[in-house]
Amino acid sequence: MLNIVIFGAPGSGKGTQSELIIKEYGLDHISTGDVLRAEMKNETELGKIAKDYIEKGQLVPDDLIVNMLAKVLDSKANSKGVIFDGFPRTIPQAKALKAMLNERGTDVSVMLNLQVDEDELVKRLLERGKVSGRSDDNLETIKSRLEVYHKQTAPLADYYVGEGKHVAIQGMGTIEEIFGRIKKAIDAVNK
After folding, report:
1. 173 phi-psi bin (left φ>0, alpha ψ -120 to 50, beta other)
2. Is the pTM of this model over 0.85?
3. What is the strand order of the sheet 2-8 is part of?
4. Active-site annotation holder among 48, 80, 134, 143
5. 23 is catalytic
6. Domain housing 47
7. Are the CB atoms for 59 and 50 separated by under 8 Å?
8. Domain count, the chain
9. Which of 80-84, 152-156, 170-174 has the lowest mean pLDDT?
10. Which of the residues 51, 76, 123, 145 is marked catalytic?
11. Rounded to whole angstroms, how far apart are CA atoms 191 and 184?
């Protein structure tokens, strides 16, 4: 299986590039947020437990998220591979993901780290806010989100460097130019 972790700051183009990767390589997309919402909506056992944490204003524990992802992954047994979007965000999550994938005889193939200049990220997010009306795309919230991202990200990027899976992708340029760089990185591990 071709399993990709796509990574990058808010506004780096993860969503756009994920769609192109899915189309090009025939992969499934697993978004942690979507999985969590579906489990809660369907009132599964895992969903009820997660809802309880969220209603108390707490983060859903990593093992619960990994169990939800495992369930989704098992339902895609005939898949060519998966893009993990929004997970992992911490080293313990990365280790839990690795263990879960290893139990299924697979692993993360590559971690694509979309790298975009800070000024460009702010510009993109402000523009997205104007177009989409997303309330979290305002200057104050953007700066806060980027700060949180940088604090969490550096260690996770280093973890994947240590695993030999990290590929830095220059996220500046046209969508096509960036996707060209991504294809090279994926093709290098997908032989």
Report:
1. left
2. yes
3. 28-31, 81-85, 2-8, 110-115, 166-170
4. 134
5. no
6. 2-189
7. no
8. 1
9. 152-156
10. 145
11. 11
Tell me if residue 124 is catalytic. no
How far apart are alpha carbons 164 and 162 in whole angstroms?
5
104 is catalytic: no
Distance CA 127, CA 124 (A): 5
89 is catalytic: yes
Distances from the Cα of 8 to the Cα of 58, 61, 99, angstroms = 24, 22, 23
Contact 172, 40 (CB under 8 A): no
Closest CA to 41 of 30, 51, 54: 51
Q: Which entry of 14, 124, 165, 181 is annotated as an active-site residue?
A: 14
Kindly name the residue from 51, 123, 128, 183 that is annotated as catalytic.
128
Backbone angles phi, psi at 188, to 5 degrees: -65, -30
Alpha carbon distance 26, 90 (integer Å):
27
Q: What is the DSSP letter of 168?
A: E
CATH of the domain at 86: 3.40.50.300
Catalytic residue, chosen from 89, 95, 123, 183, is 89
Tens digits of residue pLDDT in 87-130: 898 899 999 999 999 999 999 999 999 999 999 999 999 988 88
Angstrom CA distances, 42 to 85, 92, 119, 169, stand at: 21, 27, 41, 37
